[in-house]
What does this fold into?
Amino acid sequence: MKFLFVVPPLTGHVNPTISVARILEARGHEVAWVAHPGKVRPLLPAGARLFSLPERVDADHAAAVRDKAATSRGAAALKFLWEDFLVPLARSMRPGVEAAVTEFAPDVMCVDQQAVAGGLVARARGLRWATLATTSAGISDPLVALPQVKRWFDDLVHGLEVEAGLPRAGELSPHLVLAFTTSALVPAPFPAHFKLVGPSIADRPETTAFPFEQLTRPCVLVSMGTVNADASGRFYGVVVEALADQPYQVILVAPPELVPSTPANFIIRAYVPQLALLSRVDAVVCHGGHNTTCEALAHGLPLVIAPIKDDQPIVADQVVAAGAGIRIKFGRVHAPELRDAVSRALTDPALHAAAVRVRDSFTAAGGATTAATHLETLGAR
It folds into this structure.
């Protein structure tokens, strides 16, 4: 069978597709992606088939989007995400996705939840398709308690449906929703076509160099995500103040120019091979991005989470409810609080035990292997 992955130009949304695609290929299927090559091509395996979408965003608009993204919070951030980014993205992607479907003739379309154009094209063509929910917030319906906001969101998606000549149905596939999490983090009941498969992190290529020979234990990884780096200068300063000269090593993922001093117990890098590092550290400080959070928990690592925006507060609350992490305030945390939180993450047996429970649930769910099987089943219907 042929499987076409439709993804936005966002690292955390591309990465889960890679392991699933490798397994499908190993089982004899053809896979391809349709995406923006500038961001997505470097993330894909060598030789991966990519149907390229045009890079039409000019530098001034891109800068304005980055500035607004850095300063938006709460409802304003959600409004920005959809009105300024995801809806225009869907409109610009749809012709390229149409062309890719015509040329590749997929049996199944595998559509990231934020690549709305993929679902629109699949519905218009009568193709079987799956939604890939790369964040657990995407299946927990966080707007259910906010009816006016939910109505705004539903109408926004319906506007895209009207443009595509489709009736109202929403952004999720009625055939299969693959969520890269488990009930250990999202315990609510779900429809039968929702499959919680755990993180998709097996066999993902990592080529970033790192001085592994310098690592010592205990060790803490601090990463606020590539998208949030420019907005995290204050937080990096608190990290240095809080964790300098502590009796453990700190790997801080940050642009070096934003961290003018490097304490003796720190290694600072703009990019790191995260999966390889997670097997060698003892706790993680992060922003609550779903991929980093689940990758850490997949290694049984307790978390200190400082959510910034979007789905991150929801993910942070899920981790705290599971007993596997501590939530702190990104914009208000001070050095003593952060130091205490990291100390707890390293030493509290209850946090460690909860992280291990989540890890075990991820292992049992099957990850990319189970996801690939569900996609094959969909294709065989």
Observations:
- The two ends are 12 Å apart (CA to CA).
- The chain is about 45% helix and 15% strand.
- Residues 74-104 form the longest helix (31 residues).
